[in-house]
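User: Some background: our group keeps a shared notebook of sequences we're curious about, and every so often someone picks one and asks for a predicted structure to add to the entry. Today it's my turn. The entry only has the sequence so far, pasted here. Could you supply the structure so I can complete it?
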Amino acid sequence: MSLPRWSADEMEQAIATGDAVLVDLRADWCPQCGPQERVLERVLPTFDERVRFGSVDVEVNTTVVDDYHVKGLPTLLVFRDRRHHSTLAGFKRAPEVRQALEAVLQA
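Assistant: Of course. Here's the predicted structure to add to the notebook entry:
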C-alpha cells in the first residue's frame, strides 16, 4: 500500500477537515524519501482510522516548501484541528513517527 499522492490543494483540503493528518513531503531525487515512505506504510495500519496520510511532491508543489519553512527532505508535517502541530525533519524511524502521531491524537 502506498501513500496517496496529494497536490498542495488536496493537502490543504485534508487539513481543513480538522482530522489528524500526516503529510510526507518528498521528491524523487531525495535518497531518504523512499525509505521514509516505506516506514509510513508500516505505521499507517495502526493509525488508519484516526490519522489521514498523504504524500506531496515538493518539486511539483513548490509553495508547500515556503509555506511550512521546509529546510530539507524528507519532512513530515502533522496537523490536527486545522493547525500545524509538529514537523519531523529528516528520516524518522517507525517509533518516532508513532510517538508524534500519538502526541497529536492526545493533544
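Suggested note for the entry: Residues 27 and 58 are 6 Å apart (CA to CA). The longest helix spans residues 33-47.
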